[in-house]
Write a structure and sequence with these properties.
- It is a single chain.
- With about 260 residues, this protein is α/β, with parallel strands linked by helices.
- The protein has nine helices and eight strands.
- Helix 2 links the parallel strand 2 and strand 3.
- Helix 8 packs across helix 9.
- Bound molecules: zinc ion (ZN).
């Protein structure tokens, strides 16, 4: 059984076969649960709806750092209302910092990252962190937050792309490390080292579908059935069986999102 902890099935690219995938294909391929993760304000609503329509789909609601420009306090209230109405909302995300494209002001990104962490704490939900080319600032914000509030922040660093020392710090704080198709790429030496050195109990599987398809599908539309290639890559790196990777990461994901 596989838990895809990060996917975007509300994306346009699934318009042609979304119902077949979520209603049938994924389950037949051993994909037992999917966390659909919102990115912008529209997808907060479409993610919420998907989780209400399909048994195996859960929802993370939040706004990606590249999409924070139009945000207002009313949007935070809207996210809070949806989480209170729908028990399948299990996390706040994806939230964080992205300095890769320089299209969104870093100060504004930071403001809404912090606001959404505070919302997660208020609701007692884990956070799904998106962090790209922003290792230091992400760590600084989470660390400061950690000191300022005695209460613990839980969550996952999705599509983990930083070096091993940072991964160890996240793991020590109880965070999960999200591993997907990138681990199958030839040039992913850094991620392979992270996977090798951190315990399996801190790893969760993710596609980021429709993005980041594993080898040999690199560049194509990704979906959760392709996680078997990620499972095999992790099993090979850690020299354990694919079944062990599936079982342990499934339990990790259930713990992360407070499911049983
Ligand atoms: Zn994503």
């Amino acid at each position: 059984m596989i838990f895809d902890t990060h996917a975007h099935y509300d994306d346009d690219r699934f318009d042609v076969d979304r119902d077949q995938l979520l209603g049938n294909t994924l389950r037949a391929a051993g994909i037992r649960k999917v966390m659909n993760v919102a990115a912008d304000l529209d997808s907060v609503d479409s993610t919420n709806e998907l989780s209400l329509r399909y048994d195996d789909v859960y929802a993370a609601l939040g706004v990606h750092p590249s999409e924070v420009d139009p945000l207002t306090d009313a949007d935070m209230d809207h996210i809070r209302d949806l989480t209170e109405e729908n028990p399948k909302v299990r996390a706040i995300g994806e939230i964080g910092l992205d300095y890769h494209y320089e299209d969104s002001d870093p100060a504004l990104q930071e403001k809404w990252f912090i606001r959404q962490i505070e919302l997660a704490k208020e609701l007692d939900y884990p956070i799904v962190v998106h962090s790209r080319d922003a290792a230091e600032d992400t760590m600084r914000i989470l660390a400061r937050f950690y000191e300022k509030n005695s209460q613990r922040i839980n969550g996952v660093v999705h599509c983990y792309s930083y070096a091993l020392p940072d991964a160890r710090q996240y793991v020590n704080r109880g965070f999960m490390i999200g591993v997907g198709g990138v681990v199958t790429f030839k040039n992913s030496r850094k991620l392979k080292e992270v996977v090798s050195e951190i315990p399996l109990s801190s790893i969760v599987l993710e596609t980021d579908a429709p993005y980041l398809a594993p080898v040999p599908f690199r560049g194509e539309r990704n979906d959760s059935t392709r996680l078997t290639y990620v499972v095999e890559a992790i099993a090979e790196i850690k020299n354990i069986s694919p079944e062990q990777v599936e079982n342990v990461t499934y339990e990790n994901a259930m713990r992360l999102y407070g499911l049983s």
